[in-house]
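2.7 Reproducibility. Because tokenized structures are sensitive to small changes in the input, we list the exact sequence used for Ribokinase, including any N-terminal residues retained from the expression construct. No trimming or masking was applied before prediction.
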Amino acid sequence: MHEYDLLVVGSANADLVIGLDRRPGPGETVLGSDLRVHPGGKGANQAAAAARLGARTTLLARVGDDAYGRMLAEAQRDAGAALAGLLVGPTDTPGTVGKDGIRVPGATGAPEAVEGKDAPTGVALITVDAAGDNSIVVSPGANARLTPDDVAAARGLFQAAAVVSLQLEIPLETVAAAARAADEHGARLVLNPSPPARLPEDVLALCDPLVVNEHEARLLLEAQSLSDDPEEWATALLGLGPRSVVVTLGAEGALVAGPQVGAEVTDGVGMVRVPSPRVQAVDTTGAGDAFTGALGWRLGRGAGLEEAVRYAVRVGSFAVTRAGAQESYPTAADVETATGHAPAQGAEESAR
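Resulting structure tokens (single pass, no recycling of outputs):
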């Protein structure tokens, strides 16, 4: 049995959110709402979503030795994730943040340090206008210091994980190193290329699945002329080399494509549309991360891809009924109560 159902390698940010009636023009100042600070970052969101569902999970990420870093560590711990992979500041190595959480600068046994010096926690500056549209500026901070050396130092985490989940809010060379480490240790790889970027062919070939929304699919396939047919996107994406593909379709659910998917298979590949429950959406922030975290967890527990996507769609649909990102994520009991479906009990080991 693996120690972790899911190892998430990715970003951890403090989301600083201000509401306003309208965005300012050049040189203009406007008044906004009180500042709200939330834990965020695609990696931290996915780990928190999986942990709240009951997954044995940990996050390999780098935060600053500052107040935002401590907030993010506490949010992971509160969600139920292990802190074994959380790195602090520019030089910390995996495993030095224990069960008691992130160290406090100046505390007994901790080195004296200036808050956030050299590698402050990543921050997303978010403004939301009266129509609900947002504008986001991200300062990567410590996320940009997560390196292939950190991946190598975290070898034990990769050995202990059934599934590894990646996104692209950390350096691409680190993403590639993590994908190869997952393959080396026999872990299944889930990769969401967000924000979209060109990936090495050998990394694409390890994705099982590659998870994209319409925007990401079109950017990855920018050289191709595409219709509005998600099945066409999935076929084209499979042509890039991943073992399987999941296209998320918002309120319409998701499309699953790959070997042994569905009843009708053409050239070894099947496709299935998975509908989403009808809900009243309140806030879609972080819903895609909830979907991917749930997907990784179910795969890590031995579910087949189609079954895992069906569960992840229910988790994502629940998340949009609450405001915020991590604070909107459901427990397994929430999902069962809302949809009347409990996850099937899969094998403890994931199948490649």
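The two ends are 15 Å apart (CA to CA).
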